[in-house]
Amino acid sequence: MSDAPADPALRAAYRLCRRRTRIEDPAEYALIQLVPAPLRPALHALWAAANALDDLGDDRTAPAAERAARVEAWIAALHRELPTGTSPDPIRHALVDTAGRWRLDLSDLRDAMAQVRDDTEGRRFADWAEWRAWGRENLLPWFAQVRAILDRAGVPVALRLDTRESYEEFLDGVRLTDILTDLSADLAQGDLLLPAEALARHPGSAEDLARLRWSPTVSALVTDLTGLARRWVGQETFTRGMHPGPATVLHTMAALLRAQLDAVDAAGPALLRTRPRPPLRTRARILAPARTRAALAWSLTPLTLPPSRPPGAPQPVPAPTRPAGAPVFRRPPPHPSGERPPAIPAARLPTHVAVIMDGNGRWAQQRGLPRYEGHRAGAAAVREVVHGALEMGLRHLTLYTFSTENWQRDTEEVDAILGLLRDEVTDNPFRDLDVHMRWHGRAGRLPPDLADLLHLRERTTRGRTGLTLTMCIDYGGRDEITRTAAALARRARAGQLDPDRITDEDFARHLPHPDMPDVDLLWRTGNEQRTSNFLPWHAAYAELHFTPDLWPDTDRRHLWQAVTAYTHRQRRLGAESPNPLSL
Ligand code: IPE
Ligand code: IPE
Ligand code: MG
Questions:
Q1: Virtual CA dihedral for 203, 206, 212, 217, nearest 10 degrees?
Q2: Which helix (H) or strand (E) element contains residue 64?
Q3: 365, 406, 523, 547: residue to mutate for ligand 2 pocket, most atoms within 8 A of CB
Q4: Which of 22, 43, 322, 324 is the most buried (most CB within 10 A)?
Q5: Is 533 a residue of the active site?
Q6: How many helices (H) and strands (E) in the chain?
Q7: What are the residues whose beta carbons fall under 8 Å from the beta carbon of 187, sequence distance 6 or more?
Q8: Alpha carbon nearest to ligand 1 atom 1, residue
Q9: Ligand 2, pocket-test mutation among 355, 356, 358, most atoms within 8 A of CB
Q10: What fold, for 346-571?
């Protein structure tokens, strides 16, 4: 590697990661060989780290509690070491170096890592839904890191809206193939990582497996499951339109998985004693042409590589004001015009700006485009405005994204809006920025995968203290107030609250987000002068600002203008004498 790190310890760390991947996961190693050499060390580091952590959680020489403690200590050490760029543990050393070089946000892995700790007690799944949630929580974030590396290298692996489910199902197939392959090792430890729902379709199979008895019912179960896994890994539609480099890797991965499933099917009773492997010639038949295809595919795009740290250069350290262990955040990219935010002292900035982002449909109509395109352009404006909010140091920005009334639109438009949202949240454009993302709205009506993603972003950005960005999705002010009233009623019924003494403060404490501050500035684009059921409680005293521009035409400078206009308002808040903000 031409830009191999100069630090011998780091070089040795990457070598160890490569060796571990090659020995413990030859198929994975072969796949990584299909990506250009400069990207491989980062991928070896990720895979070695995932395997090292799994091994810690799985090491049956120690009791469960001790294994959990070891996993926990490993994760804690990683978080301590990330800002220093180094670690005494070689695998973590390679991982923190990779994270620094490629600007990866490893906090997205926090839940996947915590799952390894929680799995030390053993896992049981009632149904496929539970199994899938578990598998995806573990695998998706690691694959997201690989996608982030490719992204930074200038080969974005964007997933089309209509193919996300097939991508996630592909990963379900990866997981199921792994479980079937490792069946003997898991059974030897008393584990069975298959949902009860699947076992119930083959009565007696769970008992036979527990006794390591190869019976007709176990055989039928295995055939059933390999068939399912084959279907999941077989639909590679999500690679359509993808750069041929990653697409080749994914097709090869699918072929290797199918070969692995053939080996599982062919193993028969031996499946309960050993790990089946496809014949070497089968692997060679898949890999040899893949190497040629991959070499050609990658030659089409020059890669952008991050600079390697010069020898002896100081390791990145967190800004001094941050507590030890806190991540270092990127600054938002400046506006293309070079314009800077107005210099407004923090004390005069509104604490909370809420925006009704209106006009997407009209923007599209004006251009003869489907409404979907307006929403798509609107998503770009969101990124812009968030960058502007960060630049000017706002603390709270709340965006009206989808209202409880918006379900009344055509199913096609609703699906398009929710799909775009899913894409945005998956893409995670604020991953490197000091943005804490939150979701405000009704639970239970959004597609569950979108709700999961929103929760994931909320959890993984919880520690961020810069801007709190609240996305109001399936939000309605009346719904919020009704739910709050219900919560108060429940407290009163339980005798914990006297209905005759309920105060504003009591009400505010029972709101779904009791810590959300009052809105200081409510801004609506799109030339309408109404608030459309947005934050009625919080915006009771908000300064209102209506602008004619349609949301997709909005950029951060409009936010700056809105905030500047706000600083010239006189807020009386019901008092007799003016309380000018400009004082
Ligand atoms: C706002 O734009 C976005 C959402 C409500 C989701 P609209 O879609 O309401 O755009 P117009 O008002 O029809 O132009
Ligand atoms: C308000 O816009 C809701 C969002 C911006 C999400 P609408 O376009 O739905 O509001 P009305 O129907 O014009 O009041
Ligand atoms: Mg509208």
A1: 20
A2: helix 64-81
A3: 406
A4: 43
A5: no
A6: 21, 6
A7: 209, 210, 212, 272
A8: 358
A9: 358
A10: Undecaprenyl pyrophosphate synthetase (3.40.1180)
Q: What are 322's two structure tokens?
A: 């941050």
392 alpha carbon to ligand 1 midpoint, in Å? Answer: 27
User: Catalytic: 406?
Assistant: yes
Q: Which residues contact 17 (CB under 8 A, 6 or more apart)?
A: 41, 44, 45, 47, 48, 49, 90, 91, 94
Sign of the C-alpha dihedral, residues 292, 297, 300, 305? Answer: negative
Which of 105, 191, 358, 434 does the annotation list as catalytic? 358
Chain Cα centroid distance, residue 478: 30
Ligand 1 atom closest to residue 528's alpha carbon, by position in its atom list: 12
One digit per residue, pLDDT tens: the chain, 583 residues? 445 677 899 999 999 999 999 988 889 999 999 999 999 999 999 999 999 999 898 887 888 889 999 999 999 999 999 989 899 999 999 999 999 999 888 887 888 888 888 888 888 899 998 999 888 888 888 998 998 898 888 887 766 656 677 888 999 999 999 999 999 989 988 889 999 999 999 999 999 999 999 999 999 999 999 999 999 998 777 888 788 899 999 999 999 999 999 999 999 999 999 999 999 999 999 999 999 999 998 888 788 887 665 444 434 433 333 334 445 788 999 999 999 999 998 889 999 999 999 999 999 999 999 999 999 999 999 999 999 999 999 999 999 999 999 999 999 999 999 999 999 999 899 988 999 999 999 978 898 788 878 888 887 887 788 999 999 999 999 999 999 999 899 889 988 889 999 999 999 988 988 889 999 999 999 999 999 999 999 999 999 999 999 999 999 999 999 999 999 988 888 887 665 554 4
491-495, long-range: CB < 8 A, 24+ apart? none
Work out which ligand 1 atom sits closest to the CA atom of 356. Answer: 1
> Can you tell me whether residue 160 is helix, strand or coil?
coil
Find the Cα–Cα–Cα–Cα dihedral 287, 293, 299, 301, rounded to 10°: -100
- SS3 (DSSP) at 436: strand
Provide residues with CB under 6 Å of ligand 1: 357-362, 402, 406, 417, 526
Residue 352 backbone dihedrals phi, psi, to 5 degrees:
-135, 115
Distance 196 CA to ligand 3 centre (A): 47
Atom of ligand 1 nearest to the CA of 371: 8
Q: The domain 123-300 is classified under which CATH number: 1.10.600.10, 1.20.1330.10, 3.30.110.70, 3.40.50.9100? A: 1.10.600.10
* Tokens at 574, concatenated: 């019901």
Ligand 2 residue neighbourhood (C-beta within 6 Å): 356-358, 400-403, 405-406, 528, 530, 532
Residue 364 CA: nearest ligand 1 atom is 14
Domain boundaries, the chain: 1-121, 123-300, 346-571
User: How far away, in angstroms, is 403 Cα from ligand 2 center?
Assistant: 7
406, 474, 520, 555: the active-site residue: 406
Which of 357, 375, 403, 522 for a ligand 2 pocket mutation test, highest count of atoms within 8 Å of Cβ? 403
